[in-house]
Amino acid sequence: MDTAKKRGFFTKGLDGIERVGNKLPHPVTLFFLFAAIVVLASALGSALGWTVENAEGEEIAVFNLLSSEGILYMFESAVTNFTGFAPLGTVLVTMLGIGIAERSGLISAALKALVTSVPKQLLTAALVFGGIMSSMAADAGYVVLTPLGAVLFAGLGRHPLAGLAAAFAGVSAGFSANLLVTSLDPLLGDLTIAAAATVNPAYADGMNILMNYYFMIASVVLLTIAGTFVTEKIVEPRLGTYKGTYAGEEGEDMTTVSPEEKKGLWASLIAIIVTSVLIALLVVPSWGPLRAGLPNDEILSAPFFQTLVPILFIFFLIPGVVYGIVTKNIKNDTDVANQMGDTMATMGMYIVLAFAAGQFVAYFNTSNLGQIFAYNAAGWLSDAGLDGMLLVLAFMFVVGLINLFIGSSSAKWAFMAPVFVPIMMKLGYAPEFTQVLYRIADSTTNIISPLMPYFAIVIAFAQKYDKKVGIGTLISTMIPYTIVFSIVWVIMLLVFMYTGIDLGPGANIFYDK
């Protein structure tokens, strides 16, 4: 029987999205086209007088990029738009360290040790779980776990894009969930408390930044199971058998760790422990320069969390060099420099993508088009007169829609919280509940937004295994995660609502007016 006839309606729909998406120009060309569209739209919006009033009562108008001032801006900012593109430095610096760990043989040996020690049926779940927990290290999961997932699956003879998708889903769609407190909790929590204070200052005084902590802990378990299911039952079968080549498979036995490799792994483990202790001395003591004397209740504001990129570089570099020396894959400093150079040579396409994406993102932000759309969308929803679950679902839909245009979670919540927290309080819903709705919708749509800053790097990683991968391929692969994560998250939310379980310490779902 023709395998095409076996494909269900949903799978055929994803195939259609992939075909349409991949008929679009190359991602580099597409980002340049997006930038051109923004320039033209800014001129149109300026001519039509598009404006909006923000929460502080200030008027935001479209900045015309085709005006004399706008044209001057585009020329003067071209270099800084590229060098200031958020993921560029993070990706390149981290990849320098990863390159040493990879080319010295450390990553390959570590993967073989993992394959031989962990039950294969748990590997997908471990990858999704690791992605979810990576939000502790801010955006580092995009750079570390996404390519690692592809390598891990390829080494096991599974489709590398399925591994990449599983890691990407955990890192991005599961960004709000964690077993620990992350930097996102105070970022969103402070905005929610401030918005609640406009209605009931006394209630706001009793709120805390851990208002969603219980819900997010439970979400880790739920999303790990959901992500594993989507990967193994939907994504991997749809991708089929991987027919490409994997560099690590050329005559390499992925099921046996040689004595020399074991010796190198033990040496690199000792190097990791020593490095961890030295880093801890910079963070844990009150005098530590990466703590800056902050008390325990303010530790999330410590410089440590802003220095994770160089710390990750060190954590890959030192064990990689030690492993290479022990296994004789690194004989001198020239070998280290050459391996770093070889790694950067493979990042050429991403650098080109970053230049194009950097221009587009900068133009879009400078034009104010995103803010105007987002404020208007919020206004439409607040004026719709919805109530109950209709308002809940409509609010989540609008958040997801806005997230396709504005990636920053805190930036969106900064203008949405003052609008929707009071509205929901008047309808009997607690501010803590409104924030949970926001976090769900904001997380689940990250993975299908081409405007998300790390979308380009994920495409670049995927193209290492399939040169034909485009925006359509990635979006069609990630849509099942968005759908399933949204459904199971809403179901869990209903369970919390109807059982009366608190969302966090002292955080109820309903607000007693």
Automatic annotation (TrEMBL):
Signal peptide: none
Domain of life: Bacteria
UniProt entry tagged with the keyword Transmembrane helix: yes
Keywords assigned: Membrane, Transmembrane, Transmembrane helix
Pfam families named in the record: ABG_transport
Chain segments annotated as transmembrane: 28-51, 71-101, 122-155, 161-180, 210-230, 264-284, 304-326, 347-364, 384-406, 413-431, 443-462, 474-498
Record-given protein name: AbgT family transporter
